[in-house]
Specification:
Elements (H helix, E strand, L loop, with lengths): L1 E7 L6 H9 L8 E7 L6 H8 L5 E5 L5 H13 L7 E6 L2 E3 L3 H11 L5 E10 L5 H6 L2 H5 L9 E3 L9 E4 H5 L19 H11 L4 E13 L6 H18 L7 E2 L2 E2 H19 L3 H27 L3 E6 L6 H15 L3 E6 L5 H10 L3 E4 L12 H18 L4 E6 L6 H9 L4 E5 L13 H8 L2 E6 L2 H11 L8 E4 L13 H10 L7 E6 L8 H11 L6 E6 L5 H10 L6 E3 L15 E4 L8 H8 L4 E4 L4 H5 L5 E4 L4 H12 L2 H19 L1 H12 L4
Parallel strand pairs: 1-2, 1-4, 2-3, 6-9, 12-13, 12-15, 13-14, 15-16, 16-17, 17-18, 19-20, 19-22, 20-21, 22-23, 23-24
Antiparallel strand pairs: 4-8, 5-9, 6-8, 7-9, 10-11
Helix pairs in contact: 1-2, 9-11, 10-11, 14-15, 15-16, 19-23, 24-25
Length: 693
Amino acid sequence: MLTVLMATYNGAATLPGVLAAYGRLVAPAEGWRLIIADNGSNDGTAAVLERHAGGLPLLCVHEPRRGKNVALNAALALALAGKEDNGLFVFTDDDATPDADWLQHLAAAAREHPDHDLFGGTIVADWAVPPPAWLERLVPLGLTFGITPPATPEGPVFPGLVWGANMAIRRGLFEAGLRFDESIGPTAGAYAMGSETQLTRRLGDAGHRAWFCPGARVAHHIRAHQMTQPWVLERAWRFGRGKYRQDCPGRFPALFGLPRWMLRQFAGEAIGLAAAWLRRDADGCFRHRWELAFLRGYFHEAKRQRAGARKRVLITSYSGELGGMELRMADEARFLTAGGYDAVLALRPFPGSPAWIRGLQERRLAVSRFAPPPVFEQWRWRRVNRLRAALFDSRTLRRLRPDLVHVAFCWSVYGATALWLAARCRLPAVISVHNTFPPDQFSPWHRPMLHEAFAAVRGVYGATAAALGHFVALYRPYLRPDVRLAVIPNCVDTGRFRPAPALRAAVRQRWQLPSDALLIGSVARLSEQKRPEALIRLLHALRPRFPALFLLLAGSGPLEPALRRLAIELDIEPYVIFAGFQQHVDEIMPALDLHLLLSRREGFGIATIEALACGVPAVATDVPGNADVLDGLSGGVLVPLDDEAAVVATVAGLLADPARRARMGEVGRAEVAQRYGMAHVQRLVHQFYEGLL
């Protein structure tokens, strides 16, 4: 079923025509309903809605708190109370009149493009009066009125170009906790524009893709008073305010908290305005005034945000490669930003990091370079490194202006240098633990510095209970008695990672697998810790019983040449797919019949919960990390680390029982959504930080 959601405030003038058009809609095969949130109207809107209630599948909710996003969230609460397992939520405005086949086009796009979660359609202008010539000639109609450029073709589109009068989003994203930001968008007074755009860009940042469907068309009513220069210039000012909200502070060199290039542009526009006025160039004057209004709005919001003094959390670690810990650090930054903090990722360069960092910055996450010399992580040159860190990197840390430093530990002392620097700068710190550490002994040279470093620590959380327990056992002599301890697991976006028959078929076709093929796979680095050679040997052991069995290895790493040689030696090379590093793992997972993670040790095993979210049963070795993740879950099975025969028997039993795999996949997805869903983990993160700053 499609659910159309709309907020209205004093919409009595436009709603009758809009609702009449809804009465002429051709219903999609899935059916549809309309939910309207009345945002405290006092102009007869309630009477209009009452008159149309009998002729439309209409539900109404009254939300007296002012704000369009507040009202839309109230409408979402009502929509999610329904029992539909699948569906599309379609958002529009109370002055947007749809074509009769509007919903049919959106429903077809959602069916035909299961790898996209966000859909936009054509928005044309419905002018109340003929527009003045200067308006169409000089004004950016898209930014000002939400009008779609007429040449926009059907196909993938930047999520920020899907606008609120005509956009559709899959229901599952809202079930996972997605909501509109109530601090932005139309309210009772002056406001920052970009409420829907902020939402769609957040989705794009999280990897969700958008599709433009030109056949899904609505006409957006433009009132006469909106065609005046004062109104348009105020709109530019509001757009500037919204743009600051969506930008990434720290991405560009700044002066007084503002990007330097914007200050230069403001000076250039002011000079241009003066020159156009002297030339009596009316068009030029207006263009410069529009740009200046936009920049003033941007500067106004920057000043307003600085006055609010958001607390800054610096997230750092000692990274050597891109893995689950680094991805979790980026999630942490997003969670903290959503919770009202100013989060900055302070990263040490590592192989492949430049491309990853560019992606983070494109998603408007603040990233800075922070690579102190390894005082704890390296024994050689430790005294020189300590001196360098104390003299230079303490100043670097202070320049980043954190109120709190979050240090992610991937191994016993990997991250301790950053913790020590935080203590030297008298900054409180928290630690997240992403692996299970063995017992260790610290040297007499390190012990006093560890006491100094851990004096700054206010809280520690582990990605699993085992990780936290091992860390506390190792560092107990150094931890303050009042330190906050918690377990906060990694998370999975169940909107992106989901069962997708179309993707399953596409992946299998891509690697030309037979129609009856069984496909087991692993998404993991090809490194010693993950034991990929065990997967090659497992395939060799299983193929006599399952001749249509294939193995897909999604990942890269130092063991790849040796694994290829092993596959040749065992005469199974044609049945092993080396897929390499995959940017969109969510497109690979649904193709698997089983996901295996036969690690020697594991911090958490994000790929396991990603597989379960895709409805794919998971098999993992019974080691700390894996055992924590699958504890109590029916969608996965633990196998002994050093018993190859037991692993073969377990996997063979699952491959031979498709009905059992289907049950495990269905139950596993529901379990993962409840325990590891992003909204749940975000709440845990916010609770952990509360009161620490």
